[in-house]
# Entry
Amino acid sequence: MIRKMCEADLPAVLEMEKDLFPSSPWPEHEFLYEMHENPFSTLCVEEENGVIRGYIDWWITYEQAQIANIAVLRPAQKQGIAQKMIDLCVENCVREGCEILSLEVRINNDPAIRLYEKNGFITAARRKAYYEDGTDAWLMIKPLGGLEYDSNTACD
Ligand SMILES: CC(C)(COP(=O)(O)OP(=O)(O)OC[C@H]1O[C@@H](n2cnc3c(N)ncnc32)[C@H](O)[C@@H]1OP(=O)(O)O)[C@@H](O)C(=O)NCCC(=O)NCCS
# Structure
């Protein structure tokens, strides 16, 4: 089941974050901000039998959407959980009329890059020293189509 993240999920999510992003884990206040204050954010967890196995955070700012965070518990990886979370994110972004979904990924993060390529993301740019440890990022984007063009309301 994928559902909105709540404060009770924080210990599990913070543990995963530290394990999976050891050089730059999001601190607790970042998750709290995303949950309660950021009006553009949707932060969800994937839960099975009471175990939090993954989380995803995306932002929708008008026509543009961005995946800000996605991770899956190590022993639960390679079982399609990230795929389910991305499907949900894309569905939501399309419903909201977004034109583009983007994200940044470490250039050496092959599993994540494969995941995004499989989902139709293409590499748009290389961001130099994007991460605190100096690693570059790929900016990857996926076209979503946006709202259908309505010729009745268009201006010439
Ligand atoms: C990247 C990550 C989220 C993938 O999660 P996952 O649940 O294991 O991924 P899925 O099982 O849904 O895999 C979907 C597709 O992603 C790709 N993929 C996932 N893991 C992979 C791996 N280890 N090697 C190669 N491709 C991989 C494959 O294309 C896979 O499709 P397939 O099973 O048909 O081959 C997970 O490895 C993770 O949490 N990594 C650490 C955190 C991270 O790097 N997050 C991304 C930051 S940008």
Remarks:
- The mean pLDDT is 95.
- Residues 81-95 form the longest helix (15 residues).
